[in-house]
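Researcher: Next entry: Biotinidase (Haplochromis burtoni).
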Amino acid sequence: MLFVIAVVSVYLASVVGVTDSTPDSWYVAAVYEHKVILNRDPRVPVSRHDALQHMQKNLDIYEEQAARAAQQGAQILVFPEDGIHGFNFTRLSITSYLETIPDPQEESWNPCMEPERHNNTEVLQRLSCMARRNNLYLVANMPDLQPCPLKTSPSSTCPPDGRWQFNTNVAFRSDGLLVARYHKHNLYFEASCDTPPEPEIITFDTPFAGKFGLFICFDILFHDPTVLLVQRGVRQLIFPTAWMNQLPLLDSIQFQQAFSLGANVTLLAVNIRNDRLIMTGSGIYTPFSATYHHARKGDPEEGRLLVARVPVLEPPEVEAGGGESTISVATDSGYCYQDNCDDPPPPSYPTFISSMMYDTFTFVLLNETQGDVKVCNGTFCCRLQYRWLLQDHKELYAVGAFAGIHTVNGRYALQVCAVVRCGGLDQSSCGQEVEEAESKMDFLLEGNFETKYVYPSILTSRLVLEQPESLQKAPDGRVTIKHSNTKGGLVTACLYGRMYHLDNE
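Model: Predicted structure:
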């Protein structure tokens, strides 16, 4: 079997917050990337009996994996988005898959111990008993039915059919108690589900790692609720997803690690495995390490359990007014690859325009053995200092900049600096999807960002992550990643800035 599995543990000088490495400051986490058994015709309504029969097949696998995780000492286990029921339902055809999930903030309920309290809650009962039987915290994703009006938002306008249907995370304590319910806020072409009237900031407490926050898939690209959780000092985040990979900037593991590094948090991220939809890539990420799995073409299409020992991150000091305390590290590192390091303005190089991820980037080719290159898209500029490790490399590379509103399959404002391997030897191929590379470089990539929300990533050949040697943020908005001695050929190095405040302009 061929699987890409990597464990990286590299200290980042500019990221702080890990507790002392005493036995009580670590916990064991597990995520299970699940090859979901799908309803072959999800648009056709089925009976509750048939829906349960379908879901029990996936829950049978969950049972096996929960037992395996417990045997390896896991204290918390996370399953992916849509892993129990699948996807591509209509609003009507998902009806028999729905269960009404009580709000744990309003009602204390252990479905395993009190199964008769609520009707039609077979899935909740089985998940609860799974957590209890294996003595671990458990997070899963399932669809929720709530009557109108919502207790949490009584003045909100009801959907036309008079009920709410939500894409939902549920969390259970190790004794089976339902402790959290989160409704996904940023839907991605989900006709069967509603957007909740207000973003929900949902957390739950554990005795081994303190507070965990919940969000789902497309939420990771938006301010609410994801950044709100971080602003409130939540350092452990749980991220079930059904993520369709898109290179060169938004492969699953690439952005999972980028978010962990950029937000300075632990992320328990778990994806579906579905080769037809290019879904794979899960991991357990801290600002210091990554334990992950990413299947590649030709690998057996099967699930994967990851278990890792994770340091407990202490909550940061929260500033008055609800803002988070941010990392501020001067970028005067004295790091360059030129004979003269007095930091002169980089020379001007010819630029060209090419589409990457449906956005119009301005690029400069990297044709020298080493260089200091600046590229701008409007007033937003990126700078790259680089040196090839082998001077006779044969692949084409470029550094690009983009600042603007992304509008395909979602609308969000970006500032991005990226070094990419081009798909071929013509500049028109720069920005295409590439999985493999042979060329290696030492580099420093820097951008002058108008946002503090910048997510760094380094992706190398065959979809292997590398941890930047340093990530540095300065008060003036400069963000820098430095890396050398790349182990694999460079596919992408990226600083992905999110301009949340411009999303609706």
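Model: Note for the record: Residues 351-502 form one domain.
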